[in-house]
Amino acid sequence: MRIALEITPNLEPLFGTRDENLKLMEDALGVRIDLRSDAVHVEGPEASVHRVKGVFQDFEALRRQGINLHNGELNGMLRLVVADQATTLRSLVDAGKQRSAGVKRAVQPRSVNQRKYVEAIEQNDMVFGVGPAGTGKTYLAVAMAVAALNAKKVSRMVLVRPAVEAGEKLGFLPGLLQEKVDPYLRPLYDALYDLLEPDKVDKMLEKNVIEVAPLAFMRGRTLSDAFVIMDEAQNTTIEQMKMFLTRMGNNSKAVITGDITQIDLPNPRKSGLVDAINVLEGVEGIKFCHFEDGDVVRHALVQRIVRAYEAKKPQQQELPLGIGEGIEVQGQQSREERKAQQAAKPQ
Fold first, then answer.
1. For residue 21, with 0-12 CB atoms within 10 Å meaning exposed, 13-18 middle and 19 or more buried, which class applies?
2. Alpha helix locations (H) across 196-299?
3. For the segment 71-96, what is each residue's pLDDT rounded down to a tens digit?
4. 284 phi/psi in degrees, rounded to 5
5. CB under 8 Å to 178, separation ≥6 — which residues?
6. What pTM does this model have?
7. With contact defined as beta carbons under 8 Å apart, do 156 and 207 qualify?
8. At what angle do helices 71-83 and 89-99 cross, to 10 degrees?
């Protein structure tokens, strides 16, 4: 089937940088798109051609409503559209409007896994987001918390992070207690200030509507009517993870994010996130969302860096998520070796 689509004013953003959006649709839908002086010619299977036509029509309708999608956002949305025939540009924009109420920028998933993650947060009381750096785990969680706060679904937001150094010994930091822990919590502040006006964030922090705290402050508390996020969960111990997960009170939602390839604990086998994946998978009411390098939404180089490290990672350092025993660390004795040595000792 072959059709010609009218070239309307300001249609160029739909093509993408170096026509990357058109190439995306060509590869995913099996069509050929030719730009001519008079029209855009689309040729291919009938169903695929109609889907391309729908994208062009939706883009034009949104433009007339004053909604102008920039390329990074548009490319991510098109990936979702070509992956699911029931998804349209308009439906994605409408869903994004609901999630973006009261925030500076549209909160829009840019990959299939990001969309599953956002939907899981909407539908479940506890969600784990596990995957490499740059996949939007923390940012989307904070955005969903802000949306829930603005919609008055919860009365406060609690952002938590373990205070573990990433391979550097920082020593004794100067200042008051809050000043000492703020460097560890900076990524959470960054997301807040990106989504909300600085004055609004400062007022919410001052009134404790938004609380940003290290994990150590959570013991003994019950967090009711709250949206709770724990970032960098791979750096919690098993005991800390259990302590945090049991803080949930009535009308609360919890999102736990982490990257099991970046554990900064002295003994990676004791990572609370790895243990939680083994123990809690399949528990009703808890959803695990796993991200891949293809979900990276930072600079394009970040995606290539993640893939390069994955390709070079030694086999013995892989984290066996399905093994209840946890992670064997090179240079340390296994449980079986210690038992054998103890049995060999004279009584």
1. buried
2. 198-206, 238-245, 272-280
3. 677 888 898 999 888 889 998 888 77
4. -60, 135
5. none
6. 0.76
7. no
8. 120
